[in-house]
Amino acid sequence: MKERLTAQKLKSWKEQETPLVWLTAYDFSQAEMAEQAGVDVILVGDSVGTTVMGYDSTLPVTMDDMVYHARMVRRGAPKTMMVVDLPFLSYTRPDQALSNAGRFMQETLADGVKLEGGRRVLDVVDALIAHDIPVIGHLGLTPQSVHAMGGYRVQARTQETVRQLLDDAQALADHGIAALVLEGIPDRVAAYVTEQIAIPTIGIGAGNGTDGQVLVFHDCLGLSSRYPKFAKPFADVRHAIVSGIEQYGSEVRTRAFPSDEHSYHITDKEWEAFWSREHSD
Ligand code: KIV
Questions:
Q1: 135 in a structural domain
Q2: Residues with catalytic roles
Q3: In this predicted model, what pLDDT tens digit does every residue of 188-215 receive, in sequence order?
Q4: Are residues 101 and 122 in the same domain?
């Protein structure tokens, strides 16, 4: 069994050849399966808002929602590093960020927190790290900024925005974050940022030149009803579930289920005794 990755080991992962495998999970059984499959890091993403809670974006997700899901994940994957997303507006000031990240560390036993943004969140990053809370950054397509971005659009496609991304990445790395998620940016840009900074980059929709990859559980397993271009379903679980439920429905309607094999029985002696008592007058 692999040892649980620590923030310190994560931070120095660049020395290793093998890319890191991150996967999101939102409940006990998903986390159990992710741990059994040997993922390096489980991210309790605020993507729980769209994948599990049925919202159109991650913005409605609250601290209480994240605590609720992260506690389940921790119970399912006690031996895997667990990073929990600070949700929208939960880290606008250092004191607020500290108390919210502290909740994740104490109430869910998280190994670190992830937050979105570059130089504008450095005061928050400093406060968390000063209190020994490992921080993971997230740049590029940052879903909590969906309105500012004008939709879920690929970022850093112009020379100016590539430079801004690089400056943000460098600043976050210099302030001590343990790893950086790069989402929805061109592959060459992600590879260049990866070369330029000393901490590992974890890509999602960022090509093959990062130090690791992360996928949303539902996209990875074929549970979603639609997929972004970058997502590859590695199993067809949605189809298996729908056809299983259809088969169940059909067997109930034809009384093929439950069969004798799936029923409980009473002995003839007990049943006959009951019957004669019931019909004695
Ligand atoms: O919320 C999430 O699942 C994420 C990943 C997409 C990186 O932030």
A1: yes
A2: 183
A3: 999 999 999 999 999 999 999 999 999 9
A4: yes
Token pair recorded at residue 248:
């169940």
Residue 214 CB less than 6 A away from ligand 1: yes
DSSP lists the bridge partners of residue 114 as 85, 136
Ligand 1 in reach of 42 Cβ (< 6 A): no
Residues 225 and 260 in one domain: no
Count of domains observed in the chain: 2
pLDDT tens-digit readout, 63-115? 999 999 999 999 999 999 999 999 999 999 999 999 999 999 999 999 999 99
Sign of the C-alpha dihedral computed for residues 95, 100, 105 and 106 taken in this order: positive
Q: Is the distance from the beta carbon of residue 46 to the nearest atom of ligand 1 less than 6 Å?
A: yes
How many A from CA of 112 to the centre of ligand 1? 14
Classify residue 157 by its DSSP letter.
Answer: -
Query: Domain for residue 29, yes or no?
Result: yes
CATH of the domain at 74: 3.20.20.60
Number of helical H runs and strand E runs in the chain? 12, 8
Tokens of 151: 């939709």
Closest by alpha carbon to 48, among 79, 75, 87? 87
Asked whether residue 175 falls in the same domain as residue 258, the answer is no
Q: Report H helices in the chain.
A: 7-11, 28-36, 48-51, 63-76, 94-107, 122-130, 146-149, 159-174, 187-196, 217-221, 237-253, 268-278
